[in-house]
Design goal:
eight-stranded mixed beta sheet, single chain, globular, 11 helices, alpha/beta, Rossmann fold, 12 strands, 306 residues
Length: 306
């Protein structure tokens, strides 16, 4: 297949383009820097510029563009960057796809990044008995509104007949990057801590299964719509903390009170201490089988050296 990736230099994008190349696919990249090879094409989403030749004859478009959400507090400027980077890039791709394939009956599949943040959070004092699945409405917090508008930016392409699968990813875990790379040394030093009450459920998935899920959606005939990329047995934060400590052969006896996290991080802290009970109903219904369905097996996959 000929595959175009936007956001190919980040944690997920880098892993995905390596895997796709290993699978024998032709991988093209949309990049902000000057293109230096025939597989690279320049774009500037903030100014509406794109080398439309990147889309010529592609079978799949994968948009992962946007800076990480959890690396710093959500100041007004950071919120604007998180929104604009995601929505502008998606709008530009949607407009370009509609124009490029206006007269074609053979349109590419579009895998569009989103997030489990779509569903919002719940206080741990009122834990949900029924999990969120892909049919659940968007939440009314910052990430819920962002995910709603992010997915909505692709609507004109969907209206033109493009099949779009939205990747509502949970926290993707791997020793090579993202959050696990940051906290692994902390836990290894015996300083791992439960966050808040520890009762909150966490939507997580190993990079291994995340890549498998993307390939599953890319190669099959999955219908358009959202797909939760998160394990079917979501752990509580306490379970995650204990499982990671055990996997690293250490202890995690500390706790970080929610009031301190909220004071330091503001609304971002709610993503750490509030409940997010999400399951991958659509993937399971399509027959996808997780290699890491629970937190123990997920961390085993995330921490392995290959």
């Amino acid at each position: 297949m000929r595959i175009l990736i936007a956001g190919s230099s980040g944690f997920l994008g880098t892993a995905l383009r390596v895997r796709l190349a290993e699978e024998g696919h032709e991988v093209r990249r949309l990049i902000r820097n000057t293109a230096i090879s025939s597989s690279e094409f320049h774009w500037e989403p903030e100014s509406g510029r794109i080398n439309a030749r990147a889309l010529d004859g592609v079978d799949v478009i994968i948009n992962l563009a946007g800076p990480p959400v959890f690396t710093r507090p959500w100041t007004a400027g950071r919120r604007e960057l998180l929104r604009s980077s995601r929505i502008e890039s998606t709008l530009l791709l949607a407009e370009t796809i509609v124009e490029q394939y206006a007269d074609s009956a053979d349109k590419p599949l579009w895998l569009q990044a989103s997030a489990c943040g779509w569903y919002g959070t719940d206080p741990t004092e009122r834990l949900r008995e029924v999990p969120y699945d892909e049919s659940s409405p968007a939440g009314d917090d910052f990430l819920g509104r962002l995910a709603h508008d992010w997915e909505g930016a692709a609507q004109q392409a969907a209206d033109s007949g493009v099949r779009i699968c939205f990747l509502r990813s949970g926290l993707v875990l791997d020793r090579s990057g993202s959050v696990l790379k940051l906290i692994k040394p902390v836990f290894g030093a015996g300083l791992g801590a439960r966050l808040g009450t520890g009762r909150q459920r966490m939507p997580v998935i190993s990079l291994h299964d995340w890549l498998r899920a993307v390939l599953f959606l890319m190669s099959g005939s999955a219908p358009a719509g959202p797909y939760n990329l998160t394990i079917p047995q979501p752990p509580t934060n306490a379970e995650f903390t204990n499982a990671l400590a055990e996997a690293l052969h250490t202890k995690a006896r500390l706790s970080a009170p929610g009031v301190i996290l909220r004071t330091a991080l503001g609304e971002l802290a709610e993503q750490l201490v509030a409940d997010q009970y999400v399951v991958p109903r659509a993937l399971l219904d399509r027959g996808f089988v997780f290699d890491g369905p629970d937190i123990t097996s997920t961390l085993r996959l995330a921490l392995r050296r290959d």
